[in-house]
Every structure is written in structure tokens, then in C-alpha cells.
Write a structure and sequence with these properties.
CATH superfamily of the largest domain: Enolpyruvate transferase domain
Strand order of the largest sheet: 21-22-1-23
Number of domains: 2
Shape: globular
Number of strands: 23
CATH architecture of the largest domain: Alpha-beta prism
Largest sheet: 4 strands, mixed
CATH topology of the largest domain: UDP-n-acetylglucosamine1-carboxyvinyl-transferase, Chain
């Protein structure tokens, strides 16, 4: 795909199609310097979709310059949403105008590139009374069915049919409030139903709602647009729907997953990173668990400093879970760190059934990891060694970068689209902190 024909460049002119398809990391250098933490990938995508709910301007600040953001921008542009981007020293901002939405102009190829496109379902039903989109794509880390989304939307009066890999939904009489109990606290389903509920007539209660900070960030933006939402941060969200929604100006919260990832990178290299904008409290139980593993996080004015504890890295037991539990998105980076920690660690994955695909790649680098079902047992080795590895999903890509930074010799990574999807200029930021890292 040539740059001048790319729908990504038309929608997100700041995006640059990289000619580098391979990343080479020569490990053994401590990371020392400043690595600014970007706006949260998992927060910005539903925030961008929320602009479809109003004909007024929605401005988002602290937007991460990632491939997922560029793909969603192209999707929204196809639907008739206009965007104005600006880049300053404070970061990337976008103003979205969705005064004319055309729900029939979904781009199937773009939808299949990212899981978050499923959020268009609730927003388009709320705004236009109809939505038709292919089953969303994204990382191959598990089934991640949309049944919770569909059941909730049907309770709100939508007709939803799934056939031939296509979701067709209508609510020509408008959505109505409903009492919805989620079988599990699904982040995506909570966001989708929240987007739909703010425009539904009457009161909606979402019980067993997910509590992730990114959901609270979405709720804060919707409230600033005029929505009435109670219970933010709890397992029960109550939404008084049907109110007119105005525009808003909203700053995306900092990325807690990027914070945890870079803290692991600092510790595995025995370096010290200043992480402006980071907030330790967003990590939930991951903060004390990382501390127990030997990752020291110190709050400073305007951010966090991360480094290895003087006692070194130590094995821990962790179980992923809904917030405030240990985030599944931090599981892969943590495993790369624990591969060189003293003693034995166990990592149990309870969210996605295929999120150990990075294990085989870490083994290529000398990691001693045995997997039994959804639990991995890690015996720490003194040092990983460089190897040729492939990124299998967004977070696995970050884990392999961490492993390469802490390894002896050269590590070559392929599958860099995954890295681009979730991290804003990671290669350049790491190089500025002393990493020997080059993209070819």
C-alpha cells in the first residue's frame, strides 16, 4: 500500500507507514533517561467512538500516535466524521465532527483490523438506529465473543442478527433503558452498552460492569457532554439516557499498561527511567506485585521513576483478573521480566485462553517456561540470549522488546504491526534512553 493511497494517511496525516519491518535489539545496555507515557490506547478508542453520539465538536488531547488510532480514524472518516489533527509539544490532539453520520459506509477491511471497532455497534445504533459491520478482528488471543454486547443491546430493544460473519442491528424505534446483568465484567461490553445507554430513552443499569480506569475515563467524557451516569468506578452503572449531548474537550488518561511495560524494561536492564505523566495508582494490584518482583516505582512530581530494586529481581505468583486485578495486558511484559528473576514464578491467565503465544518466542531466547493449561511456571535464568522471534499480538510484541533489551547479543523481531498498534514511537523513545535498537 503506497502512502498516497492509504486511507490511514487521509484520516490521520500524522501516521507514517514505516519502511522498517524488522526490529533489531542489541541487549545489555541499561535504560537511563526520560520516556514520556502516552495517552492510554485502551481509553482513546472508545473516546473517539463517543464523538459519533453528537453533532457537536469533540476534542481529545493526549492522543497516542498509534496504528490502532489511525485505523479507527479511517473508519470514522468513512462514516462521515471529519477530523482536525494538531501536534504540539504537549502531544497529539484531534477534534472530531460527526454532524453527518452515514452508517452504511463501514469499511470491512478496516473493521477486521481491530477489535475495538465493535464499539461502533452501540454508538451507531444510538445515533442512527442501525449498524452493519463484519465481525471485528484484532489480536489472536482468544475467542472474545460479542455475545455479552449482543444480549445487552437486545435488552435495550435492538434487533441483532449474526450471519455470514456480519452483525446486522437495527433499533428504528430508538433504544430504551434496560436492566442488564453482565455474566462477566467485560470491558468491551461495558463500553458498548454505556455508549448506547446515554442515548436510550429511560434508565439503564449495567450490573457487574467492568471497573477499569479506561471506562471511568469514557464516562467522564460522556458526562462532560451532558450524559447522566452514576456509579462510575463501581460494578453498577446507572445511566439516565435520552438527554441531548453537546461537545466536549477531554484529555485521555495516561496509559497504565505502557507504565507497567516500561517499568519492566527499566528493571530488566538495571537502569532507571523517568516516566512523565505516569500514575502508579492506575496499576491496581499490579503495583505491589511488581514491587515484590523487584520493580521499584517511585512517585515524583508529574510522573514516576522506575528502576530495579537493590535486592534484585525475585520470582512471584500472579493471576490476571478484572481491574483492580493484575491486567491481562501486563501479563506478557511481566513474564519477560520474570524469566530472569531469581527463583520460580507462576503466571495464571484467567481472561484470554490464548495469551501464552509469546511463551514459545521467549523460549527461543533461553527462557525456562512450562505451560500447563492457563498457568505458566517460570524458572528464572541468569540472562536471556538474543534470538529471532515473531510478535504475535500487541502485548507480546512489547514483551519481546523487553526480553531483547535484557538479553545478551542480538534479538531480531518480526511482526511489528503489533508493536505499532499499541505503542507510540516505542523504538525512538527507547533509543533516546540508551537502547541499542534499530528498525530496518
Amino acid at each position: 500500500m503506497t502512502p498516497d493511497k492509504s486511507p490511514l494517511l487521509k484520516a490521520a496525516p500524522w501516521w507514517r507507514l514505516s519502511t522498517g519491518r524488522t526490529l533489531v535489539v542489541r541487549g545489555g545496555r541499561p535504560l537511563i533517561g526520560t520516556y514520556p507515557i502516552s495517552g492510554a490506547k485502551n481509553a482513546v478508542l472508545p473516546l473517539m467512538v463517543s464523538a459519533l453520539l453528537t453533532p457537536h465538536l469533540v476534542t481529545l488531547r493526549n492522543v497516542p500516535a498509534t496504528l490502532d488510532v489511525a485505523v479507527l480514524a479511517a473508519l470514522l472518516q468513512k462514516l462521515g466524521c471529519e477530523m482536525h489533527w494538531s501536534a504540539t509539544g504537549a502531544g497529539l490532539s484531534v477534534t472530531l465532527s460527526a454532524d453527518r453520520v452515514q452508517p452504511g459506509r463501514i469499511d470491512p477491511e478496516l473493521v477486521t483490523r481491530m477489535r475495538a471497532s465493535v464499539l461502533l455497534l452501540g454508538a451507531l445504533l444510538a445515533r442512527c438506529g442501525e449498524a452493519r459491520l463484519p465481525m471485528p478482528g484484532g489480536d489472536a488471543i482468544g475467542l472474545r465473543g460479542i455475545d455479552f454486547h449482543v444480549t445487552g443491546l437486545r435488552a435495550m430493544g435492538a434487533t441483532v442478527e449474526l450471519a455470514g460473519g456480519v452483525i446486522e442491528a437495527t433499533a428504528h424505534g430508538g433504544l430504551r433503558g434496560a436492566d442488564i446483568l453482565l455474566p462477566l465484567p467485560s470491558v468491551g461490553a461495558t463500553e458498548n452498552l454505556l455508549l448506547a445507554a446515554v442515548s436510550a430513552k429511560g434508565t439503564t443499569r449495567i450490573r457487574n460492569a467492568a471497573r477499569e480506569p479506561e471506562i471511568a475515563d469514557l464516562a467522564a467524557c460522556l458526562i462532560s457532554m451532558g450524559a447522566r451516569i452514576d456509579g462510575v468506578g463501581s460494578h453498577v452503572l446507572t445511566i439516565e439516557g435520552g438527554l441531548p449531548l453537546a461537545g466536549a474537550i477531554h484529555a485521555v488518561l495516561p496509559d497504565r499498561i505502557e507504565l507497567g511495560t516500561l517499568a519492566c524494561a527499566a528493571a530488566i536492564t538495571d537502569g532507571e527511567l523517568s516516566l512523565p505523566h505516569a500514575r502508579v495508582e492506575l496499576l491496581g494490584v499490579a503495583a505491589p506485585l511488581l514491587d515484590a518482583a523487584g520493580v521499584e516505582l517511585r512517585d515524583v512530581d508529574g510522573g514516576v521513576v522506575a528502576r530495579r530494586a537493590s535486592s534484585g529481581l525475585a520470582g512471584i505468583d500472579l493471576v490476571t483478573g478484572p481491574y483492580p486485578g493484575f491486567a491481562t495486558d501486563l501479563q506478557s511484559p511481566a513474564m519477560a521480566l520474570l524469566a530472569t528473576a531469581s527463583g520460580v514464578s507462576t503466571v495464571s491467565e484467567t481472561i484470554f485462553e490464548q495469551r501464552f503465544r509469546h511463551v514459545d518466542e521467549l523460549r527461543k531466547m533461553g527462557a525456562d517456561i512450562a505451560v500447563h493449561g492457563r498457568t505458566a511456571r517460570i524458572r528464572g535464568v541468569a540472562r536471556l540470549r538474543g534470538g529471532n522471534v515473531t510478535c504475535t499480538d500487541v502485548r507480546a510484541a512489547a514483551a519481546l522488546v523487553i526480553a531483547g533489551l535484557g538479553a545478551t547479543g542480538k534479538t531480531t523481531l518480526d511482526g511489528l504491526d503489533h508493536l505499532d498498534r499499541g505503542y507510540d514511537r516505542m523504538t525512538e523513545k527507547l533509543a533516546a534512553c540508551g537502547a541499542d535498537i534499530v528498525r530496518f
